[in-house]
Design a protein that fits this description.
Layout: E1 14-17, E2 24-26, E3 32-43, H1 44-50, H2 53-70, E4 75-79, E5 83-88, E6 94-99, E7 102-105, E8 109-118, E9 132-144, E10 147-159, H3 162-166, H4 169-173, H5 176-190, E11 207-210, E12 214-217, E13 226-228, H6 233-263, H7 271-276
Antiparallel strand pairs: 1-3, 2-3, 3-10, 4-5, 4-13, 5-6, 6-8, 7-8, 8-9, 9-10, 11-12
């Protein structure tokens, strides 16, 4: 289900990438900090409608859903009461494992943070340490009457990539790091539609009235495991068929080129004729 926007192609907000100048850095010990950011401008009433813990939780789910969709469902996120597991197709292949998210929100700022536990992509130095992935949303001064602006940052910090420590930093910087930046930029741009996925857990799906405070989210946990992401097998099958067809066409083209090359040689050509023209008649 989608939020606010029922027309898929209609942009409700304007999204502009605002990465810091040094958006990805690695320290001497191999810890990475990477920040991607965007400014979203929208009608004030739209922001008022979605500024709540429930929609912050939906924003978190939207991030995971986008990651799965952009990887054609090969990357999935498995929810448990205590963890979030980023897996390649199935649970045994856990690329990243996070502790359950932590939420914080007030009138000006909302933060959801997943602390890094371990995973195939995490070096031993970064397991169970201070590493985290975080989405930070802050309100900005109004750019114009009736318009609101928020600054959204996606940050991963104190992350020790196994690829950099086991192979080379250059390999990490030009593969995993670049992919992370591209995917995160795509996610930030997609927020212009204000289409937030329904939460898989629904921790803040209901509200309760607290004396002296008013209505606040009523958190609850689920005992069931949930997996976000479905593999679109028809699309993957079509892609595989396209690759197979391209391979057949390339092989056929090579055979035709080789056949044309052979047919263009002079008739009766023989390597012995060439050797016969050498001193000694080609005989030793």
């Amino acid at each position: 289900m989608k939020l606010l926007n029922r027309e898929r192609e209609r942009r409700v907000a304007d999204s502009v990438i605002r990465d810091p100048e040094e958006h990805t850095v690695m320290d001497d010990q191999g810890a990475v900090r990477s920040v991607q950011a965007a400014d979203l401008t929208m009608p004030t009433e739209q922001l008022d409608e979605i500024w709540s813990p429930m929609h912050l939780e939906r924003l978190a789910r939207t991030y995971w859903k986008y990651l799965s969709r952009v990887t054609l469902g090969l990357i999935r996120v498995r929810y448990t009461p205590t963890e979030r597991q980023v897996v390649f197709l199935m649970a045994p292949f856990v690329l990243l494992r996070f502790y359950a998210p932590e939420y914080a929100m007030d009138d000006e700022r909302g933060v959801v943070k997943w602390r890094i536990r371990d995973g195939i992509l995490v070096a031993s130095e970064g397991r169970g340490g201070d590493g985290f992935l975080e989405i930070d949303v802050r309100k900005c001064p109004e750019p114009a009457p009736g318009r609101a602006k928020i600054h959204v940052e996606v940050e991963i910090a104190s992350f020790y990539p196994a690829l950099a420590l086991r192979l080379a930093r250059w390999v990490y910087a030009n593969t995993q790091s670049r992919i992370h930046v591209l995917v995160t930029h795509g996610f930030l741009r997609s927020l212009a539609k204000l289409e937030l996925e329904e939460s898989a857990v629904g921790r803040f799906a209901t509200v309760q009235d607290v004396e002296g405070i008013g209505e606040v989210a009523a958190p609850h946990a689920t005992a069931e495991d949930v997996t976000v992401g479905d593999t679109p097998w028809p699309a993957i099958g079509a892609l595989a068929a396209g690759v197979a067809l391209a391979t057949v066409l390339v092989a056929r083209r090579r055979r035709e080129t080789a056949r044309a090359t052979r047919s263009s040689l002079p008739g009766g050509f023989d390597i012995g004729d060439v050797l016969g023209g050498l001193p000694g008649g080609g005989r030793r």
